[in-house]
Write a structure and sequence with these properties.
Elements lengths: L2 E7 L3 E8 L14 E3 L7 E2 L1 E5 L4 E3 L1 H5 L3 E6 L11 H19 L8 E7 L5 H13 L5 E5 H11 L7 H4 L3 E6 L4 E7 L2 E5 L9 H15 L3 H10 L1 H19 L2 H4 L4 E7 L5 E7 L1 H9 L10 H16 L6 E5 L6 H10 L4 E4 L6 H28 L2 H39 L8 H13 L2 H33 L8 H4 L11 H4 L6 H15 L11 H18 L1 H10 L4 H4 L4 H26 L2 H24 L7
Parallel strand pairs: 1-8, 8-9, 10-15, 15-16
Antiparallel strand pairs: 1-2, 2-3, 2-4, 5-6, 5-7, 10-11, 11-12, 13-14
Helix pairs in contact: 2-3, 4-13, 6-8, 7-8, 11-12, 13-16, 13-24, 14-15, 14-16, 14-23, 14-24, 15-19, 19-23, 20-21
Length: 643
């Protein structure tokens, strides 16, 4: 895309921004700051439309001021969720904005451009799609709908003067976007956004204060009755006067200290059967009433009460993870009280806002377009890396180390969990013959290598093994991160492995087949028969009369048959329990280290001599696929930092 447009269609006012894909040093957007495009002569224009007597579509202030119109609409977006007819109002107004952009040459037919249009964070996926289709039917360029709070956050991150960068994105951050009809919150933790609706689903925006200010001024007017009758008969005049009240309110809050010593007022001449003048005024006393006085549409509660309650609701949702920074955006955020309320509830947080908070969302929307394009390119580069053989080459290079580490870590517990239980079963008579220990041992080994304990040990093995793998992989991922200006840790396995939800999984049974550890079985049988036959100079069967008798019998048998033949015969003998119990468990345990050393050596030799391309290829493929999946998941959560 060559151009990205941001359209902040608000309930009271709207604005449009534009960001060039490739900025130049001598351009109007030298530092990549989206420019605010004037629509009908105003950077911030009233969300209103009307049809003149000749049928011409008017938008913005002209729609409010034109005396003779066939239809006039203002403040309609706030009813989008409750009134289906508002869809047509949005379509008509959007068409007027599009026509104005084309007419001024700020948008060119069929240019390579896209529009990012904001919506309240509380709108669900279905509502957003309905909203998007409205602009599609107006023949807008490709359009995407994103939350206004996300746009405000991106605007904060990209604003150079705020010095909000990757460091703050590693800490808790709360964006408060106060629009004309809604207040949206976006909570950010570790660069990941969690959108939150205004508490209680209550519409809360600056428009309520506009209505309240107008009502106070009408009440104070000596012509109140006449003015109310005009408003009843002609909604357009009411809308126009409300628009004038909004402008006066913004004027006051832009410099409250100045207006403490000067009068902030305006006069509107209402043309009716008997023309009448409405005087609008605001001072410190009236401002306090706007903030703390009861509002009918809020069920008699004040703006302050509802805002603070919604902020408390947010605090409850994030529990003990209080934000370190609160970023205020939206025209109403200029109110000093807003900052004060936020600081009262989050005393440890830094509260900031942009130089032009009324344009934050529009600029953030345009930035979103460029960021999304960069994200697409970023993910394409990551996918290109995954499609190459780089990961497989690295895994194969380190495969021997993985096997060695797994053997060294698992053999001892595997021998202990298999040999001891089988020995005990044979010693108690549950296993009738030594020959039957073969099947029993295979069962115990299979059970252990599939157990949770073996799984946990393997996870530790994999975690240690992945670190040098990750180091080698960063030779490929770091250039991608540099290219898009994101932290190296975004694609670092080492940093990802510090998380509790590590996704690389490798089971012991993938490395150890039961038939590969038959040496454990053979070793157990050899040790038992050796002990029974007095091997290694240890006369185990010699204590007591029964022991002496058994020892004498075995000695005669060894003389007649020979040691090897006798050991073979023992495999199928059903020895009495008394004889079995004379083989102490301690004698077996004392030989376990020897068994473990022998098994380790045997497994290492088998791996070197018997591994083949099929086994190696399967292991490399399985492990590489999991690493690649992990990298793609990391790429998916890279949202805010790019740009």
């Amino acid at each position: 895309m060559k151009r990205f447009y941001g359209f902040d269609l608000g309930d009271a006012e709207s604005c449009v921004s534009r960001l060039e894909s490739d900025t130049k040093e001598d351009s109007a957007v030298r530092y990549g700051l989206p420019e605010i495009l004037p629509v009908e002569g105003n950077k911030s224009f009233v969300t209103a439309y009307a049809f003149s007597a000749s049928g011409q579509l008017l938008i913005g202030e002209r729609a409010c001021c034109e005396p003779r119109v066939s239809r006039r609409k203002i403040r309609f977006k706030s009813h989008f969720l409750t009134d289906r007819s508002v869809r047509e109002d949005v379509r008509t107004f959007a068409a007027g904005v599009l026509g104005s952009l084309y007419g001024s040459g700020q948008l060119i037919q069929n240019e390579d451009a896209c529009f990012y249009i904001g919506c309240p964070a509380g709108w669900d996926k279905n509502t957003r799609e309905i909203y998007r289709e409205i602009f599609e039917k107006c023949s807008f360029p490709p359009t995407r709908i994103i939350s206004e709070s996300r746009a405000a956050l991106i605007s904060a991150c990209q604003s150079r003067h705020l010095q909000v960068g990757y460091d703050i994105l590693s800490r808790p951050l709360l964006v408060v976007d106060i629009g004309s009809s809604t207040t949206d919150y976006a909570y950010i933790e570790g660069g990941h956004e969690v959108e939150m609706q205004t508490a209680g689903e209550i519409a809360l925006g600056g428009g309520l204060m506009d209505e309240a200010l107008l009502e106070l001024c009408v009440q104070a007017s000596p012509h109140a009755k006449q003015i109310r009758e005009v408003f009843r008969q002609n909604e357009a005049w009411k809308n126009y006067c409300e628009f004038a009240a909004r402008r006066l309110k913004e004027k006051y809050y832009s410099d409250t200290e100045y207006w403490k010593k000067n009068e902030c007022a305006d006069s509107i001449r209402i043309l009716a059967d008997a023309p009448v003048t409405l005087r609008l005024t605001i001072d410190e006393s009236i401002a306090r009433r706007l903030e703390n006085g009861p509002v009918n549409s809020l069920n008699g509660r004040s703006f302050c009460q509802v805002f603070c309650d919604s902020l408390k609701h947010v605090k409850e949702k994030i529990e003990d993870k209080s934000p370190e920074l609160i970023f205020l955006t939206g025209g109403v955020s200029k109110m000093p009280s807003i900052r004060e309320w936020c600081m009262n509830l989050f005393p440890d947080a830094i509260v900031i806002s942009g130089n032009e908070p009324e344009f934050s969302v529009a600029r953030g929307l345009a930035w979103s377009g460029k960021i999304d394009e960069q994200l697409r390119a970023f993910k394409a580069d990551v996918k290109k890396l995954m499609d190459s053989d780089a990961v497989e080459t690295i895994v194969e290079k380190h495969l021997d180390a993985l096997y060695t580490c797994a053997v060294d870590s698992l053999v001892e517990p595997m021998v202990g969990h298999a040999a001891i239980p089988v020995f005990r079963k044979w010693r108690s008579g549950e296993i009738k013959r030594l020959a039957d220990t073969d099947a029993a041992m295979q069962k115990e080994i299979a059970a252990y290598i599939s157990s949770d304990e073996a799984h946990d040990l393997m996870q530790k093995v994999v975690a240690r093994w992945l670190r040098p793998v990750g180091d080698d992989l960063e030779k490929y991922t770091q250039p991608i991160c540099i290219r898009y200006g994101i932290p190296y840790t975004a694609l670092s396995l080492s940093s990802y492995l510090t998380l509790s939800d590590m996704d690389i999984r490798l089971e012991a049974r993938q490395l150890f087949a039961v038939d590969q550890v038959t040496l454990i079985i053979d070793s157990l049988i050899t040790i038992i028969t050796s002990l029974l036959c007095g091997g290694s100079g240890i006369a185990l069967i010699s204590s007591g009369f029964a022991g002496i008798a058994a020892g004498a019998i075995l000695s005669v048998a060894i003389l007649l048959l020979g040691r090897r033949q006798m050991e073979k015969q023992l495999l199928n003998l059903r020895l009495p329990k008394a004889v079995r119990k004379m083989v102490p468990e301690g004698a077996l345990r004392s030989r376990l280290p020897q068994i473990c050393d022998a098994v380790r050596q045997d497994l290492h030799e088998r791996f070197e001599t018997e591994k083949n391309e099929e086994i190696t290829g399967r292991m490399v493929g399985e492990i590489s696929a999991q690493i690649e999946d992990c990298l793609m998941k990391m790429a998916q959560i890279v949202e805010i930092p790019i740009g």
